[in-house]
Amino acid sequence: MVTWKNLDEAQAYKVLPTLKKVEVKTEMAGQSGAERVGKYCLPMAGGLSYNFAAKAVNDDILAALSKLAEEMQLGEKFEALYNGEVINTGEKRRVLHHLTRGQLGNDVVADGVNKRTFYEDQRKAAGEFAAKVHRGEIVNEKGETFTTVVQIGIGGSDLGPRAIYLALENWAKANGTLKMQARFISNVDPDDAASVLKSIDLPRSLFVLVSKSGTTLETLTNETFVKNALRAAGLDPAKHMLAVTSETSPLASSSDYLAAFFMDDYIGGRYSSSSCVGGAILSLAFGEEIFARFLAGAAEEDKLAKIADPLKNPDMLDALIGVYERNVLGYPTTAVLPYSQALNRFPAHLQQLDMESNGKSVNRFGQPVSYVTGPVIFGEPGTNGQHSFYQLLHQGTDIVPLQFVGFRANQAGMDDTIQGSTSQQKLSANVAAQIMAFACGKEDADPNKSFAGNRPSSIIIGEQLTPEALGALLAHFENKVMFQGFLWNLNSFDQEGVQLGKVLAKRVLAHETDGALRAYSDLLAI
Amino acid sequence: MVTWKNLDEAQAYKVLPTLKKVEVKTEMAGQSGAERVGKYCLPMAGGLSYNFAAKAVNDDILAALSKLAEEMQLGEKFEALYNGEVINTGEKRRVLHHLTRGQLGNDVVADGVNKRTFYEDQRKAAGEFAAKVHRGEIVNEKGETFTTVVQIGIGGSDLGPRAIYLALENWAKANGTLKMQARFISNVDPDDAASVLKSIDLPRSLFVLVSKSGTTLETLTNETFVKNALRAAGLDPAKHMLAVTSETSPLASSSDYLAAFFMDDYIGGRYSSSSCVGGAILSLAFGEEIFARFLAGAAEEDKLAKIADPLKNPDMLDALIGVYERNVLGYPTTAVLPYSQALNRFPAHLQQLDMESNGKSVNRFGQPVSYVTGPVIFGEPGTNGQHSFYQLLHQGTDIVPLQFVGFRANQAGMDDTIQGSTSQQKLSANVAAQIMAFACGKEDADPNKSFAGNRPSSIIIGEQLTPEALGALLAHFENKVMFQGFLWNLNSFDQEGVQLGKVLAKRVLAHETDGALRAYSDLLAI
Q1: Cβ within 8 Å, pair A190-B339
Q2: Report field, pTM of the whole predicted structure over 0.95
């Protein structure tokens, strides 16, 4: 039986501020630094490893964080979650995204259905549909094969699948497994859909409409926008569209779609990449096998998240260190810095995952908490960021904890040796250099050229960004955010903060406003 | 004669914390809110207006901020800057980017040259080159016209021009002025260049190599990468490449380029979009006239930045309010939220502009400051962000000031009325609704559904995102960041914080490392 309690009720949490702070600068210098790099490293799935040598921790702090994990029952709470307890108490829902990629515990039966079987059946159905498209068994009005797939969705139906597609697009090209190009329409701004529609071969395009409820304003608007464009081109929308939705949504049994694949209320939008929300478009783009490899990487990482000892559990440890940085060291933001161009939209996905899950001020019982919760998350790929906002990270007045990601090999297999090193080596040399520059800094007689150091970072290192590695990376952050939600005693699986804006926007469109809202609406000529 | 002094030396700054704080929630409710929307609004160039009704200010605080502007001599410092004083004291350079788009004050003669004439000559040269390409007077080896232009550059040579190109691409398509498609290669990750090269018609592509110094590692590496690819395709790199650089750089007089256009040391990378760093690629993509219209918008905004009264100067006032939020109210981050898909990379450009300019801990004399300086900047387009990180903005434990941007009309001219409103109306209704939801919040019996409000925001509103509006928007933020640098007494025009990483990366590549740096290099197989 688990006990849900606030972070500041934990004895182990009260100990943390009393422990001597770690000076990263000193710890990472000389032989001590080399030893930390070897010692403070945990294996992850997909050939990845989580290296936290440059974080502001030592054995004492890690021991205290272990006690905190135990006292806050992180392992037990995860167990309750994957065994199907109603963890999303606000909406009275189970939280079952782990079941989309594996079985971690007991069978979970809900609504009379084994949920693992349900998700797996949906994955297979989407995979088989994709295979038929690839084999030319599902074709357009003229009997031509489809070459492009366009996802229509927003938030969790967009950011995760988009980040994953972009992360594997060049890998798939290099490995001969890119079956269809993918595009995404998300914004209600009509210029978004217009731009995508102009860039594709419309008669040879399939559209995947993704909305769990079947009521998302942006998505339904864009669906109609696209259907109008299809009709205007003399095409039959019903021959170009499929739906990913819940079985109870109005879209589920409509004849407007070639096919429908299902998730349910137990899969939150931002956790839905490994459900058929990601599965339909990714199977169409890359083939069912590649999507299965992605899921296998995620499932392996989930298994690691079950390890009781936080010092052997990379997802739990990352969560604990993050809470230490946020609540004890007082850092308000975190930067995600992948040294891989393919991961260029991965920070935007993590931004949603983290900020929408843990950007909350009341605990799971609706009581205000008296400590800070989820940080602001931002990031861009290295080395681009180095020539942009790293100035502030190195010499600004605030300290920003950093999460690097790096790989030993590139994806496309195209590289040149220029001035004695390959581009990949230059890329990797830069991430290694940055970690040390942030950690140790450098004194200079000119204070404007001095670097204070003591900027903590961790790095996830892999051989190559493969489907397995990407799955592991995604699951790592999902699990990290989940464990942090447990520590802050939040419900990480609802998002009541998005409701008020929706209500007010409807009022504006109905012209039922007064005061400042009316004044803004007039200025915007609505 | 201006006197440079620290923010906390200003008497007017000491007054600010003593003033009664404004409760946005109260001020923005009812009739008072409607009045503020009308009153707290300043015209900008390009048909834009800056509306700060939902900021945590009132007439008292604005009066105090005006005094601060006067005491800190913001107007005089700007005047010194555009008249050519050496404002970038660290690097002993003038700061002349305003001259790339207009003459705000005295003639500035440096190195025996009138700088306005010099920049204008370079703009015209790039424009004439572009016109020759468009007219088919400059063609490839087979006599074919060029259809694609690819910028090779990083940081300021990438983010600004990229954001601007994307902002105008669909507008240009709709207005029949898209002459060539543009692509960008920035990252040293070889997958970046490989991906771009695979997506274009190489024989019909021009490459613009942009590096002021001619020594940027990433850019030179990608240049060689591209040249190798051109040669491998049987093409002559010298017939496909042009350079944008300084006259003293090794690239300036090389026969490896079809043409070279010049900026100089008085144009910082992140302020170079209006120089030929932006001018070459944007003239090729859209034609010289469109780039000139963009510059005209920026020049008009610059003129507004000269207005002595901060309450009539949108750039200066935005700067003052930002410093009030950062230093008096204590908010560590700022979100930029354009309700325009075309501005999807504009926040990334502002991230560099702001964080690289003012992410500093020592003043312009090299002395440590005892107050916080530049905030973390992040953002994504609305409505996408609403379905992502807005949860934290509404209900998180930290307050994040918000900068909205919205337009009355879309760019592509494609729109449908769906459920009684167009997509553009839905988009605009959402931004109006969000401002009010953030400002006023909503009480609910269920604390999980309560919104505390008091989240301050401003909005820049325009008719349409045209070249003029975009120029004004860019100049607004450049000038805002400049004025904030004056307030914090920083040198906003150097970036010493990027140096240490470069030095260490070279050591890694030369295998001249030990300790932790060696250990990381080994892990990354360098």
Answers
A1: no
A2: yes
